């Protein structure tokens, strides 16, 4: 089965480097991810643009919009990315830069870091971003749920806060990263109710293979998630993602394979990403992968 990883990272972020070195034990480099992708038949990764101006700075008020994948000079054909938004840097100049970058084939979406930056999804600061998303037909990805930094503020990243944006901007598709975990039942309702809201299943656990297996096999750790996935009952709106380097690719695939009924694997691991991120299609054609 061919797989698209709809959520990964490849940026100089101190917290990611520390997690790779101390928890997930992945090789956090371009070679490292390409090897894991090759070994697991992952044909494309969608990186979430993110930068910090000083080590440990994220969420960084100084980072320039748009934020990219600054761990690599040039992206190989197996990687595309979403342009990261810093709401403190969204003046005329930054919006022009954003629009310029949206014209690059490899810029396939926009990423807003709810909870890391203290603004709600429906805040007026983000309105120009939604207008660009509509004009360039790219989705907006929201961080939702737990923040991987104790400086985050959870009220901004609750999945219910996506509902109003989804209603106001029906012409834009939104992807709720992490399904709003741990508020996944609320996340499921927002996905279920709004035709333009999708969710990725990335970042639901952090660590090496042994820890991922321990959590995956625990009777209760993912009980809330199983409940939410079943309640949502829209497997065509869920996307596989790893949040690499937070966990090894193979261990994460095994977890999602067990979570999602087999008849929906094709949607979750591959097909839904083509609908949410239409700009990725030429990358897959180029690689010789059949499209439906
Ligand atoms: Zn992430």
Describe this structure in words.
This protein is of the alpha/beta class and 292 residues long. The chain has one domain: Alpha-Beta Barrel (TIM Barrel), CATH 3.20.20. Helix content is 36%, strand content 14%. It has an 8-stranded parallel sheet with strand order 1-2-3-4-5-6-7-8. Helix 3 packs parallel to helix 4, helix 6 packs parallel to helix 8 and helix 7 packs parallel to helix 9 (249-259). The longest helix is centred in the C-terminal third of the chain and has 12 residues, at 265-276. The protein starts with a strand and ends in a 6-residue tail after the last helix. The model has no long low-confidence stretch (mean pLDDT 95). Bound molecules: zinc ion. The site of zinc ion (ZN) has 5 residues, from loops. It comes from Paenibacillus dendritiformis C454. Residues 70-278 form the Amidohydrolase-related domain. This is Amidohydrolase-related domain-containing protein.
Output the radius of gyration: 17 Å
Distance between the termini: 14 Å
What ligands are attached or bound here? zinc ion
Largest sheet: 8 strands, parallel
Weakly predicted, low-confidence segments: none
**What is the topology, as strand order, of the major beta sheet?**
1-2-3-4-5-6-7-8
User: What portion of the residues fall into strands of 2 or more residues?
Assistant: 5-15%
Percentage of residues assigned to helices: 25-40%
CATH topology: TIM Barrel
What would CATH call the architecture? Alpha-Beta Barrel
Overall pLDDT metric: 95
The helix/strand order is EHHEEHEHEHEHEHHEHHH
SS field, number of helical segments: 11
């Amino acid at each position: 089965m061919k797989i698209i990883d709809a959520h990964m990272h490849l940026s100089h972020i101190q917290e990611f480097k520390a997690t790779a070195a101390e928890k997930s034990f992945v090789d956090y480099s371009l070679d490292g991810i390409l090897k894991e992708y090759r070994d697991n038949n992952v044909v494309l990764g969608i990186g979430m643009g993110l930068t910090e101006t000083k080590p440990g700075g994220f969420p960084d008020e100084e980072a320039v919009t748009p934020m990219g994948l600054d761990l690599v000079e040039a992206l190989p054909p197996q990687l595309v990315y979403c342009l990261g938004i810093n709401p403190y840097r969204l003046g005329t100049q930054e919006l022009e830069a954003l629009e310029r970058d949206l014209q690059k084939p490899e810029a396939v979406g926009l990423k807003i870091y709810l909870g890391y930056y203290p603004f709600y999804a429906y805040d007026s600061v983000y309105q120009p971003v939604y207008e660009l998303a509509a004009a360039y037909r790219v989705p907006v990805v929201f961080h939702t749920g737990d923040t991987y930094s104790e400086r985050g503020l959870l009220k901004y990243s609750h999945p219910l806060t996506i509902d109003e944006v989804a209603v106001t901007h029906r012409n834009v598709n939104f992807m709720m990263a992490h399904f709003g975990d741990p508020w996944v039942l609320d996340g499921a309702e927002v996905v279920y109710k709004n035709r333009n809201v999708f969710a990725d299943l990335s970042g639901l656990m952090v660590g090496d293979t042994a820890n991922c297996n321990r959590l995956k096999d625990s009777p209760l750790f993912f009980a809330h998630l199983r409940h939410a996935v079943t309640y949502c009952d829209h497997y065509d709106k869920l996307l596989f993602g790893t949040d690499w380097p937070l966990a090894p690719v193979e261990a994460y695939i095994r977890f999602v394979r067990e979570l999602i009924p087999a008849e929906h694997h094709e949607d979750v691991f591959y097909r839904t990403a083509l609908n949410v991120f239409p700009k990725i299609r030429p990358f897959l054609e180029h690689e010789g992968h059949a499209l439906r």
